[in-house]
Design a protein that fits this description.
With 340 residues, the protein is mainly beta. Helix content is 7%, strand content 53%. It contains 2 helices and 21 strands. It has helices at 2-17, 19-26, and strands spanning 38-41, 51-58, 68-76, 87-97, 101-112, 117-126, 133-138, 144-148, 162-174, 177-185, 192-201, 206-208, 212-214, 229-238, 241-251, 256-262, 270-278, 281-291, 298-306, 312-321, 330-339. The strands form 2 sheets. Strands 1, 2, 3, 4, 5, 6, 7, 8, 9, 10, 11, 12 and 13 form a 13-stranded antiparallel beta sheet that branches. It has an 8-stranded antiparallel barrel with strand order 14-15-16-17-18-19-20-21. A hairpin with a 6-residue loop joins strand 10 and strand 11 (192-201).
């Protein structure tokens, strides 16, 4: 059961932290990353300005099948077509296998800002064969803080490309009993501290388990060489903007890669830049590039996380204008890339 608890957190943390990829995508209606989710203005009485409702099918694991249904609402702090200052909302997520077996249900409240995101709520995954349930919850009075890992002392990678700060309660239950524990993350620490762990058997007897610490790594059995290849990425941003790029990645050392970025594909407009591994996760890398025309350049810092099968990777990024009339302002972007 203890190993099941650790594997449960290992699968839930990337899902919880990566929610913004789907959220930013669906808030760009009509683009590939919005998929089948419809976005409509919230015309209800009392709804604040720039409020929207969303609902529809979504391919959450990029396997070509819409196993997920998303619904909820979001309110922007400013007009999403022209500025980015933050948003807040709530989402309900349901996952079904082949449209027949319901395996996940979750409700989450969130805020997304330029520097960090905050999450609270709960979600339960049910294994269809064994019936084992894994439930992760975050107290709404103490939301989990989620920020891109940068490698700095106060933004250490402790969940692949993310730096988490806060507590989560995790419970795994099956026919033999239930195992519960509190997982405490700190943005200054690479490992999660596991405490208040108890096992309760089917007869109701409870045992306390010792405290421990766990590292959640991406690609622990792989290397930076697994990034090598050519990918095509769909990307979307807030303020609303979207596009596609072709990325050719080559390993240049034990912990670095070189990236040739043609945006859009076939345009001949190519930027070359570098990225480095974050912490002990070879499947999580970070870098930056300078874009935009002279007089209005911006710097975009990005984190990429490679899927365990090596066929896709996801992006979170933020950009800030370095000069010109928009100097100091910027936006938030996400991306989904597939190997060609």
């Amino acid at each position: 059961m203890e190993s099941k608890l650790k594997s449960g957190m290992g699968s839930f943390v990337p899902r919880a932290a990566g929610f913004e990829s789907s959220m930013v995508g669906i808030l760009n209606p009509g683009t590939p990353l919005a998929q089948g989710v419809a976005l409509t203005p919230d015309g209800s009485a009392g709804a604040p300005p720039f409020s929207f409702l969303f609902s529809g099918p979504y391919d959450g694991n990029t396997d070509g099948y819409n196993e997920t249904t998303l619904s909820g609402g979001v309110s922007f702090d400013s007009d999403p077509d022209s500025a980015w200052t933050g948003l807040q909302g709530r989402t309900t997520t349901d996952v079904d296998i082949l449209g027949l077996v319901h395996v996940y249900h979750g409700d989450m409240a969130f805020t997304i800002g330029s520097a960090e995101r905050q999450l609270s709520g709960s979600g339960t995954f049910t294994e269809p064969l064994s019936g084992t349930t894994t439930t992760l919850s975050v107290d709404p009075s103490a939301p989990l803080r989620v920020a891109p890992a940068t490698g700095a002392a106060d933004a250490v990678s402790n969940a692949c490309g993310y730096s988490l700060d806060g507590d989560m309660r995790l419970t795994v239950a099956n026919s033999s009993g239930s195992l519960s524990s509190t997982w405490s993350f700190a943005s200054t620490r690479a490992s999660a501290a596991v405490s208040a762990a108890t096992f309760t058997d089917g007869a109701g007897r409870t045992w306390a388990l010792p405290d421990s610490s766990v590292d959640i790594r991406c690609g622990a059995g792989g290397s930076v060489d697994d990034w090598a290849g050519t990918f095509e990425m769909d990307w979307a941003c807030l303020p609303r903007e979207s596009g596609r790029a072709r990325l050719t990645i080559a390993s240049t050392g034990a912990a670095t890669v070189s990236i040739s970025d043609e945006d859009p594909p076939g345009s001949g407009d190519v930027k070359v830049y570098a990225a480095s591994v974050l912490g002990a996760s070879p499947y999580a890398i970070r870098g930056f590039f300078i874009g935009g025309p002279a007089g209005s350049t911006y710097r975009e810092d990005f984190n990429w996380t490679l899927a365990s099968n090596g066929r896709t990777f996801s992006q979170i990024s933020a950009y800030v204008y370095q000069e010109g009339p928009s100097q100091g302002s910027g936006g938030l972007c996400i991306g989904s890339a597939r190997r060609l």
